[in-house]
Q: What sequence folds into this?
């Protein structure tokens, strides 16, 4: 090449010394497919078109799927099952295996990710041959494919073992309602152990939804109280009289209306 | 008119070489999707930069409403999401952009890796690129706490436990990040906010500058 100590750069798109550089004039369209193209303004215009198409798709995504927001952080809620953002799931899943957790946490949290990311960082010094094609450097390619496969597998394991229905329930924003704990309805709810699962404020718990603003009628509430729902709530929880059932169902149906 | 302004500045500061270094160079055939469709793999780096710009801009607008305080953080995000005009769009862009930038960064890394483009003379640029990847992951981790909702708090608790597992310095790292040995609270939120908004973006801009200067200096790697 023209400068420096004669380092060979293939496909030279470097800025050349003024003495050797030619004036950059974009090629005539009749020369298509010409070999090279001026960055400014021809190629940049195409890049902007790609960017514009991308931006439209991106904005559609933000309109179709608003960013999620769960209820305000409550450090006292010990039943909450945490989950990191999806791109950390593979690390999180790794810590669930017995030789990567407990007394071996260092293995799962530091040694394995450390080796993987350290290898990535130092790749140019580990893979020092001059060959660039992936097939001609089998070790480097094999290690990267192994890493990708591990990340995909661990992420999939994490996603498939997570209880997404419960995750949605436990984080739901519940409208704040002042519950009259001296009312007859609340006393019936308390006596029939409703609040054990649905919470003191009936705002839901780890295994049960909120009873505020359910949108159910009193009859529907009465039916669920007696017959249970969806396998999680067993039948026969309610053990009181019909009179109490009416009080309870009207109380619950009236919450957050 | 524009030319006159340009000439006026150029006469005093000699900006033409600077302009030439940034814009005046050829794009080789093998990276141009107009010639070879498979060259779309060269778009991932540029799209990563594009989303990074979106992240910086949307983040700047988010801080106009966001309050890094355990009483008001969630309230401010809720207000932004439900009351502010287009707040949902701006927060949506920042939220989804955080995922997309990592996807694009990952694809860009794979492109460079499988093409062996990190080999001599481009070792330094590869290292800077991997450092950018780490900074992005750090931005994702610290940004996740800021809405101060349930998943934010408990995911951060798990993350801090992992940081604590670091041999020898684990407990110091945790205190540095969380501000307290045991409590994940007000101090943690302000620290994560500062890291997310000042420390990591500062590092990111410096690293990206180095990344781009090295690309201009070395050019794009040749065809396989």
A:
């Amino acid at each position: 090449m023209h400068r420096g100590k004669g380092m060979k750069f293939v496909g030279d798109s470097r800025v050349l010394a003024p003495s050797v550089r030619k004036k950059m004039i974009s090629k005539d369209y009749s020369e298509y497919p010409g070999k090279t193209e001026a960055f400014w303004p021809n190629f940049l215009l195409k890049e902007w078109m790609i960017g514009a198409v991308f931006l439209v798709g991106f904005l559609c995504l933000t309109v179709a799927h608003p960013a999620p927001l769960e209820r305000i952080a409550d450090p006292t809620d010990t039943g909450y099952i945490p989950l990191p953002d999806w791109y950390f799931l593979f690390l999180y899943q790794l810590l669930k295996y017995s030789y990567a957790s407990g007394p071996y946490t260092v293995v799962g949290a530091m040694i394995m990710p450390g080796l993987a990311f350290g290898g990535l960082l130092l790749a140019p010094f580990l893979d020092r041959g001059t060959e660039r094609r992936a097939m001609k450097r089998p070790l480097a390619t094999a290690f990267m494919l192994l890493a990708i496969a591990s990340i995909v597998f661990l992420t999939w394991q994490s996603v498939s073992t997570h209880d997404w229905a419960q995750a949605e329930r436990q984080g739901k924003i519940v409208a704040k309602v002042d519950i009259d704990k001296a009312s007859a309805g609340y006393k019936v709810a308390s006596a029939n152990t409703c609040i054990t699962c649905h919470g003191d404020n009936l705002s839901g718990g780890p295994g049960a939804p909120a009873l505020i603003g359910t949108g159910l009628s009193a009859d529907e509430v009465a039916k669920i109280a007696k017959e249970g729902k969806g396998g999680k709530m067993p039948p026969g929880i309610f053990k009181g009289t019909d009179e109490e059932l009416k009080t309870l169902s009207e109380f619950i149906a009236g919450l957050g209306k | 008119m524009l030319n006159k302004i340009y000439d006026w500045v150029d006469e005093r500061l000699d900006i033409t070489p600077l302009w030439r270094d940034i814009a005046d160079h050829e794009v080789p055939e093998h990276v141009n999707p107009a010639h070879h469709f498979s060259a779309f793999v060269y778009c991932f780096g540029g799209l990563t930069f594009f989303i990074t710009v979106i992240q910086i801009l949307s983040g700047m607008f988010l801080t106009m409403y966001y309050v890094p305080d355990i009483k008001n953080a969630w309230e401010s995000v809720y207000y932004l999401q439900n009351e502010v005009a287009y707040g949902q769009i701006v927060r949506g862009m920042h939220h989804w952009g955080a995922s997309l930038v990592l996807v694009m960064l990952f694809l860009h890394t794979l492109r460079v890796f499988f093409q062996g483009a990190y080999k001599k003379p481009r070792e330094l640029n590869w290292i800077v690129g991997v450092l950018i990847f780490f900074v992005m992951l750090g931005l994702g981790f610290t940004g996740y706490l800021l809405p101060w909702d349930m998943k934010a708090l408990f995911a951060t608790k798990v993350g801090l436990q992992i940081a604590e597992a670091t041999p020898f310095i684990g407990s110091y790292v945790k205190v540095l990040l969380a501000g307290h040995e045991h409590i994940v609270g007000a101090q943690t939120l302000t620290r994560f906010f500062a890291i997310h908004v000042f420390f990591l973006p500062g590092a990111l801009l410096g690293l990206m500058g180095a990344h781009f200067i090295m690309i201009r200096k070395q050019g794009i790697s040749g065809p396989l």
